[in-house]
Amino acid sequence: MAALGERVIQAGDGISEFEWQASPQLAALPQASWQDWAAPEGRVFVVAPHPDDEVLAAGGLMAQLAAAGHDVQVVAVTDGGASHPGSRLWPQARLLEQRPRESGAALRCLGVRSACLRLHLPDGAIAVHRATLVRRLCQLFAPGDRVVTTWRWDGHPDHEETAQAVAEAAARRHVRLFEAPVWAWHWCLPSDERWPWSRARRLPLDLATRERKQRAVQAHASQLHPDPSTGRGPVLRPSIVARAARPFEVFFAHDG
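^ thats the sequence. predicted structure below, dont judge the formating
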């Protein structure tokens, strides 16, 4: 699915939020609460392929867990140095400094107290380093922990490789796994049979949580503005920012 999704990701604003809000699949999802993710005997990990994925996938959940006093640990697989290819405004060296700073500011907006753990794998090449990623995650996870990451069919190669590595590490360490779509909202129709709706749960976000999440999204300034040096629009287009303002988040639960 990655190759198809990656092509569609590059084009336009994707599936409209109106179509998503009108979809019976989304309307029928059972509701959950942040307590379903709390780990009484461990930590909650959020594993992000790139800085900002943790906010887009689970910013509301992290804010709710943090407000309730639970330990949330974000793991950044890459530092996001490939987000602006060929850019004179955002060369890779600048991105590798800027994007971790933005991620730190975003986590403070959410109330997450633990510093982000950075694995420094190369952006765009997670597949090459998948064994390393699995090994590092196995060193972090312990039985009783819970982990959230991107969906294994999200349409972006790094998202899918990260999800597969997290799933392998979670199985080895007996950690319960949740996956969240990020780019799939953009390109995969609600009626697509690949959506695992039977495992999906809808987490409601109250107004205060939504405001925290929106401030966290805005902290990723390098991704929110056009790049005049290449003529490209923002990486996080208005349609993506609008989806991040939903009064809910969606997760796919895996038994564990």
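Residues 92-110 form the longest helix (19 residues).
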